Amino acid sequence: MWNQRFSGKDYVYGTEPAAFLRREAARLTPGARVLSVAEGEGRNAVWLAGQGLDVTAMDAAPNALAKARRLAAARGVRVAFHLSDIADWDWDARAYDAVIGVFIQFAPRAVQDRILRGMRRAVRPGGLILLHGFASRQAGYGTGGPSDPAQMYTEDMLRARFAEFEILALRDYDAEIAEGRGHRGRAALVDLVARRPA
Question: Exposed (0-12), middle (13-18) or buried (19+): which is 7, by Cβ within 10 Å?
């Protein structure tokens, strides 16, 4: 499904990072090791690399990664791209200073929970999780994301999943988004920034 979605020449979600990352990037120090989960066509990973971060990114769609590599080359940055299904990623291979997930709600809740557990393991003590996705009311907006509200985030759900972390930011809000043809219009969003205890 995703390889087909990314098969065209255009960048489905554009080439600029999510506004969430622009807002929160000051929390990341230059040279920090960052993992971007289910990166897609590279817009977030490439931008983060341009901010001086050491970025690893993974995605299961070869077409998406081909575009991501082209975008990185065009911007003159280096990203370590890996072809991997999110469910098969080795979360214990390396401890990252930050693990980032932007609109990764495509799986059923049980799989999402497994992914969030992996993300928690992959971040070093004192490191950050940055998560940005859709709130449950997004299903009625028709501007992107899964059609099943059960796949969306709520503040209570994220607070429970990251109960052992220090919550630095957790917000549920509506905003206008213009991210390629994939995300356009009014959107219901949830942001989380959480620090793993040192």
Answer: middle
